[in-house]
Amino acid sequence: MNHKPSKPFPNGSTYDFFNNHFCCRCNKYKVDREGMPLPDNCTTENALAEAQFDESKWPSNDIVGIKDINHICLHFTADDESVMESYKALFKGDAE
Q1: Is the dihedral of CA 26, 27, 29, 31 positive or negative?
Q2: What's the domain range around 17?
Q3: Distance of alpha carbon 12 from alpha carbon 14, whole angstroms
Q4: Domains contained in the chain, number
Q5: Looking at residue 95, what is its pLDDT?
Q6: Tell me, what's the pLDDT at 36?
Q7: 81, pLDDT greater than 80
Q8: Measured between alpha carbons, how far is 67 from 34 in angstroms, rounded to an integer?
Q9: 55 C-beta neighbours (distance < 10 Å), count
Q10: How far apart are CA 29 and CA 43, in angstroms?
Q11: What is the 8-class DSSP label of residue 6?
């Protein structure tokens, strides 16, 4: 694999983009009635929450950069086949 560990999000917009494209569409993402993430949520999402207060908790080996995309979750999974095909396409050519 030719991906690199990521660095923390440079701003809130980058986090929102990541959250909307990965976390909110992932099978591992669980929320309560108010829409708040549950404690038994994805470990990567939990690490992101902790990294807000302690940058050393940033999950740099779970969120990686490939080519010109800096934040891709390695643990993303979705039931929607077209979403998964788009996700897998991010890694095409990564092994080169």
Answers
A1: positive
A2: 4-89
A3: 5
A4: 1
A5: 55
A6: 81
A7: yes
A8: 37
A9: 10
A10: 10
A11: -
